Amino acid sequence: MLNGKLLTIILLAMFWLPEAKAGDASELTSRLASAGLENVRTAVGDDGVIYAAVENRVMRGTWRGAGFALRLMGEVFPEAGNFVTVILDDGVPRVRVQARRSDEGRWKVWVDYDVEKAMGVLGRVAETNSSRGKIDITLHPKISIDNHRLDVLCEYAVAVAPAFEMSLWRGNRITVQPVIPLIGGNLRKDNPLRYLRVGIADVSQELLRGGRTALTLAAGMFYPGFAGVHTEFSWMATEELTVRMKAGLMGEATAGDGGYRFGKTDKLMVMAGGEWFEPRSRLQFQLAGGRFVYGDWGARMDVTRHLGDYAVGVYGVWTEGEHNAGFHFAIPMDRRYRGRKGRVRLRMPEYFGWEYEMVSYYKYAGQNMGRSCGTRADENRSARYFQAEYIRLNLQRMMDGEATDDGRQKAVAAKDRKRNKEKTNNM
Fold first, then answer.
1. Contact, 245 vs 224, CB < 8 A?
2. Which of the four pLDDT bands, split at 50, 70 and 90, describes residue 259?
3. Nearest Cα to 228, choosing from 205, 251, 204, 197?
4. Phi-psi bin for 378: left (phi > 0), alpha (psi -120 to 50), beta?
5. 406 — phi, psi (to 5°)?
6. Cβ neighbours around 121 below 10 Å, total
7. Residue range 98-122: mean pLDDT, rounded
8. Is 282 exposed, middle or buried (CB count within 10 Å of its CB: 0-12, 13-18, 19+)?
9. What is the tens place of the pLDDT at every residue in 127-144?
10. In Å, how far from its chain's centre is CA 213?
């Protein structure tokens, strides 16, 4: 009789427990997707670790989506202690977040780029709330102040640049961004800032599987007035050190009174360098050297201080005997939580980035020295910054309760109440 009871218990453990875990994973998937996170996958590993992969396009910053996912994983699996979240970008895994919750409810997080094991577990699970085919219209402001003329205090221009962005498959991004001038009455007639123009109109594709390495190829029109092809490679050597290389072959594409003028595709840019993130001071050091867009050879160094959502830095450029310097910043612009209803969403950018350069005259300006190009509408030093130590510091602060997000919590709580009410009505 004892053997029969023991056999019954073993059979129940074999067949009933996995079903309970599968049901919990389904609930986790549903709640993550209802919060607006996209390309969601969840699973329970054989070792009891709870896994999730999410792409965050509703919460500002590269760490907030992972932090929200971890908290929700802890709610759905109150007895679990180990969690793994993979942060996606256009469906490509970028960063792995490992977290452990103590019996007292305190969290400890580690962040790295070793995504293969987690994606091996999650790869067997169907994707929920796909981002494919959804369109974001982001209203980027463009502000230009130039004080190189003697007859006016400064030239000024204000424009709005709505970026239409969409992804059709894993690693793909299509961007169309016209620049619509609003203010610029004292600009000379030959200044392109006076006219309606194309900021970015390109198609980009990530060619590698993600994690420590990335290789992106883009073709089309790039900011601030080029057309051609561009490729960029990055290798995350450690959690603090990144090696980068980029190259492009392009020609000028400038707007004028008579329409667009396209120059010869004869401008070859090749740059290589690296960046280091120092976690104690939260300083980001960037150094790159090579051939700039207009053929001059030189180097550029940036030093940026990251303070949560804010990034403020200075830079210097040395090229063929000439030099330049200035500062740049990225500040939060949109609110922390921006939900999506339907397949088209109108929003403000997460961050506003701006750069000032000291030299705008003489040989440096006349020969367009030290120039580069931009292939994304949201390029700045806060948006899409997938540096492991940067994410760990901000995520740990968030899990410790130092960085709250009342707007997101209220929105998600309202969705949970609505879902529970619908369940009650169905019963």
1. no
2. confident
3. 251
4. alpha
5. -60, -35
6. 20
7. 95
8. middle
9. 999 999 999 999 999 999
10. 16
Residues in the chain: 427
pLDDT of residue 358: 87
Residue 72 and residue 54 in contact, taking contact as beta carbons nearer than 8 Å: no
Tokens found for residue 27 = 């609930």
The tally of CA atoms less than 13 A away on the side-chain side of residue 105 is 5
Q: Where are the strands (E) in 167-258, listed by range?
A: 172-183, 197-206, 213-222, 226-236, 241-256
pLDDT digits (tens, 9 = 90+) for 10-31: 554 444 444 334 447 899 999 9
Residue 146 corresponds to which tokens in the numbers above? Answer: 């130039």
Q: Position 99: which residue type?
A: A
Compute the distance between CA of residue 24 and CA of residue 43 in angstroms, rounded to an integer.
9
> What crossing angle do the helices spanning 64-76 and 406-426 adopt, rounded to 10°?
40
Provide Rg for the chain, Cα atoms.
25
CA 360, 348, 412: angle at the middle one, nearest 5?
145
Report how far residue 238's alpha carbon sits from residue 281's, in angstroms, rounded to the nearest whole number.
18
| Structural tokens at position 296 | 């001059």
Q: Count H helices, E strands: the chain?
A: 6, 20
């309970």: which residue's tokens?
Answer: 20
Q: Which amino acid is it at 59?
A: M
Q: Please tell me what DSSP assigns to residue 192.
A: G
Q: How many whole angstroms separate alpha carbon 175 and alpha carbon 232?
A: 17
